[in-house]
Write a structure and sequence with these properties.
2 domains; Tripartite tricarboxylate transporter substrate binding protein; D-Maltodextrin-Binding Protein, domain 2; BUG; Bug_dom1; 5-stranded mixed β-sheet; alpha/beta; signal
């Protein structure tokens, strides 16, 4: 009898705890949501959140407050969200490609893939390889031949050690059989400045970063990972036997701290799907040389895991040392 009474008491206690939680989820959101962007204003990540953020707030009925927390290749901002309460009021908007690399870097803690719950894919753009005009090659095969004839004499720029454009160029070296030397910078802007000035000869990064310089005639584009939506035909890596580079594609994602309630994730995922179907949002994203890329939570989680495995393979096979 006593044991039965204790079980009943425990059940009542559990109900008392669960009821407010269920009520809170049903009323979510009831105050503003903070979205941390772990990159500085500008670039290719922040502008997309400033496009989708206001409309997402309209759909949810609460404003989204954008908080830029740059540093440590996005680890600072991501770490802040990982430690936040899992209630749906602190979210992370980041580059999925960068996010999957973080767990592979020293000290390999925390594991950012396990510390977050995927909400939705948001936007994507292709990568491009561009060279300074002083490089005599006019096509990608010519550039590969030129680099092979000058091993160790050409340099490629990246926005930092261990990020996606570094690893993409290292993968290019590995598959093309070239020995182009890595020159890391503290951010994409100084890297592009030195590329335009001819202090480095090559960069492999997202289209929004380099296309304006190509259009202005300051750089020469040799290959893209995918065709530009609505643009003229462009040479693709796949045409030259480098289709593997198509898998290294910049894409932007919305994440929540792990253990965020499923009901909250579902509401955010559905809201993002509505936003990315809005004609004005589509048009605005395309002005940033990107495209809407809606992925529901489960598919996004699967892609993050698959991309992490791919990046680990590149790092291991290329014997790339990632600095802390």
């Amino acid at each position: 009898m006593k044991r039965k009474f204790l079980r009943s008491l425990a059940a009542l206690a559990a109900t008392a705890v669960a009821a407010p939680l269920a009520f809170a989820q049903a009323g979510y959101p009831d105050h503003p949501i903070r979205v941390i962007v772990p990159f500085p204003p500008g670039g290719s990540v922040d502008p997309i959140m400033r496009i989708v953020g206001p409309r997402l707030g309209e759909v949810l009925g609460q404003p989204l407050v954008i908080d830029n927390r740059a540093g440590a290749n996005s680890a600072i901002g991501a770490g802040a969200v990982a430690k936040a309460p899992a209630d749906g009021y602190t979210l992370l908007f980041t580059a999925g490609s960068t996010h999957v690399i973080l767990p592979l870097q020293p000290p390999q803690s925390p594991d950012f893939l396990k510390d977050f719950a995927p909400i939705a894919g948001v936007a994507r753009s292709s990568y491009m390889l561009a060279v300074h005009n002083s490089v005599p090659a006019k096509t990608l095969p010519e550039f590969i031949a030129y680099a092979k004839a000058n091993p160790g004499k050409l340099n490629f720029a990246s926005s930092g050690v261990g990020n996606l454009n570094h690893l993409a160029a290292e993968l290019f070296n590995l598959r093309a059989g070239t020995k182009i030397v890595h020159v890391p910078y503290k951010g994409g802007a100084p890297a592009v400045q030195d590329l335009v000035a001819g202090r480095v000869q090559m960069m492999l990064t997202n289209v929004p970063t380099l296309q304006p310089q190509v259009d202005a005639g300051a750089l020469r584009a040799l290959a893209y990972t995918t065709a530009r939506a609505g643009g003229p035909p462009v040479p693709l890596f796949a045409q030259y036997g480098l289709a593997e580079l198509e898998g290294i594609e910049p894409y932007l994602v919305l994440l929540a701290p792990a253990r965020t309630p499923d009901a909250v994730i579902a509401k955010l995922t559905a809201a993002m799907q509505k936003v990315l179907a809005m004609p004005d949002v589509i048009k605005s994203i395309e002005t940033q040389l990107q495209a809407p890329y809606y992925l529901p939570a489960q598919q996004l989680g699967e892609r993050l895991q698959a991309d992490s495995a791919r990046m680990k393979e590149v790092i291991d096979k290329g014997r790339i040392v990632l600095a802390p």
